[in-house]
Amino acid sequence: MVVAPSASARVYDRVKTDILSGQLPGGGFVTEGELATRTGVSRTPVREALLRLESEGLVRLYPKKGALVVPLTADDVRDVLQARLVIEGWAAGAMWERRADVVDTLDDLLEQMADTRDADDVTAFVAHDRRFHEVIVAAAGNAVLTGTYQSLRDRQLTIVAAQMRMSGSRVDQALAGHRELVELLRSGTKAAFTKAVRHHVEAAISRIRAGR
Q1: Given CB 3.0 to 4.6 Å as the disulfide criterion, which of 4, 58, 139, 193 pairs with 95?
Q2: CA distance 149 to 135
């Protein structure tokens, strides 16, 4: 029997999705009453959901007032992207011998990214983008680094979603970059694939430094 999620879990999922997709931007403020009305539940499960989000560092609570969506600082963005560069750069080489095990999965994710790009669904596009890179990291076979990489996932989503919304061409650039990675896995070399993965992340760092 499938157990329906609790009211608190539903609110948590809804608010977290809105934060990570940029629908609730950093620096924005929401009240318990607003969230209760939006999600159709009482304030108690809203409060429980906000406490959980606060423990994850996504909101900061103000008693009897509401919750502030914690904005990403320039240092946050830099630290996350640099951590990605280290982990993904290593993983690209380490997973090369296992590339046949994951290339079809990556190809499927690439198709889903193209579909969501055509539908102008940035939120779904970003989710597929993140999953694409998680598959590569997981294929490297280091559980500790995979766990560390996954712990960055929420901040990654926020950063990438913000980048995508700042420039429509950014989505097309990302799609082309991921397509190149799949092609290199099928017919390229280990050195070329590793270089392309690093360039992919370095380009994101450069855009952040340039403010776009």
Answers
A1: 139
A2: 11
**Range of the structural domain that residue 13 is part of:** 7-69
Residue 166 resides in a domain: yes
User: Is the distance from CB of 50 to CB of 70 less than 8 angstroms?
Assistant: no
CA distance 49 to 10: 8
Q: In what order do the strands lie in the sheet with 29-30?
A: 29-30, 66-69, 59-62
Average pLDDT of the residues of the chain: 87
Q: Cα torsion for 91, 199, 17, 151, to the nearest 10°?
A: 30
pLDDT band (50, 70, 90) for residue 2: very low
Asked if 84 and 28 sit in the same domain, the reply is: no
Task: Scan for tokens 């360039």, then name that residue.
Answer: 199
Three-state DSSP class for residue 60: strand
Q: Which amino acid is at 95?
A: M
Neighbours of 201 (CB within 10 A): 20
